[in-house]
Amino acid sequence: MSQPRTPTYEGRPLPRPDEEVVDQGLGFDLGTLLGRRQALRAFGLGALGLGLAACGSSSSGSGSAAAVATPSATATTGTTGTTASTGEIPDETAGPYPGDGSNGPDVLEQSGIVRSDIRSSFGDASGTAEGVPMTLELSVSDLANGGSAFAGVAVYVWHCTREGGYSMYSEGITEENYLRGVQIADADGRVKFTSIFPACYDGRWPHIHFEVYPDADSISDAANAIATSQVALPKATCETVYAEPGYEASVTNLAKVSLDSDNVFGDDGGATQLGTVTGDVAGGYAVSLAVRVDTRTTPTGGGQPPSGGGAPGGMGGPGGQPPIGG
To answer: Rounded CA gap, 40 and 32, in Å?
Structure first.
């Protein structure tokens, strides 16, 4: 004859089979509580592990421990990289001193403007801008054509001297036209200029201006520009350059501004406009930037900044500074 079975709860015999589960005593209650906590802990760790593995797989293509161990780096790359790699270059002001005919002088009408080395003036002018050597390479792509290289476009580049002035406008250099030039993009959409590293003048983050035109014939009229923007220069490189003779005023000016406070780059901290820089003071620096142009959108850049239009010189800072937005 079989023995009667002892009632159980969650696989454990009840010490008081004739009583309710809640009346089995303190020892039984503690055992039940601990068992539930262990189960929850095991489930939680398992779910967390599955979640991390899924994140590692989606962000890096593998579920490796290394991928899971650096979620912040993956997130930064995923967020910033996507925007920077696909976004159209922001339209910006051409500043008060473009030299494209939209605000006085027009260097684009002068013979000799299409050149790669912009350190010296051309035509009737003969001056040369001094400073730390720099090359600038812009790679222009056509978002309206699937992001392909924008071959044949004309790119006009200009920037300030190491003292912070602009040729054709600033006091003492109105007869010069250096640090201005045009290049026609090659089959890969690239243009390259040889120049000097620009200053940081009062009120603006260190930058380089540029306009993109459909072709060489279009540069005769600033209204033909299909994109107007600026290249921002990295802080660490600027600090190194500004320790060199001739850049003394830039040290103070740089300390008073940031990419986030700048009235041009401040919208997004220059996310799609911050140049990549290699090199050193002795050998010179190479600055590069991908410039993505979308001809399906209406250009909104160019023209003068809200505070622009004042006469060069007498504005404080080195060489007679342009107003904010220059």
So the answer is: 13
The structure tokens 């904010």 sit at 324
33 alpha carbon, distance to own chain's centre: 55
| CA atoms of 16 and 76, how far apart (whole Å) | 60
Going by their DSSP bridges, the two strands 227-232 and 8-9 should be labelled as unpaired
Q: Are strands 133-142 and 284-293 parallel, antiparallel or unpaired?
A: parallel
The 3-class SS string of 259-316 reads: CCCCCCCCCCCCCCCECEEEEECCCEEEEEEEEEECCCCCCCCCCCCCCCCCCCCCCC
- Residue extents of the structural domains in the chain: 8-60, 83-293
Phi, psi of 13 (to 5 degrees): -65, 140
pTM: 0.71
b or e along 173-192 (b: 16 or more beta carbons within 10 Å of the residue's beta carbon)? bbebbbbbbbbebeeebbbe
Distance CA 135, CA 117 (A): 9
pLDDT tens-digit profile of 122-168? 999 999 999 999 999 999 999 999 999 999 999 999 999 999 999 99
Residues 86-118 pLDDT 10s:
689 999 999 999 999 999 999 999 999 999 999
Among the residues of the chain, which ranges form H helices? 26-60, 65-69, 71-86, 235-241, 248-255
Secondary structure letter of residue 108 according to DSSP: G
**How far apart (Å, rounded) are the C-alpha atoms in residues 64 and 69?**
9
Among all chains, which residue has been given the structure tokens 């006009």? 156
- At the topology level, CATH places domain 83-293 in Protocatechuate 3,4-Dioxygenase, subunit A (2.60.130)
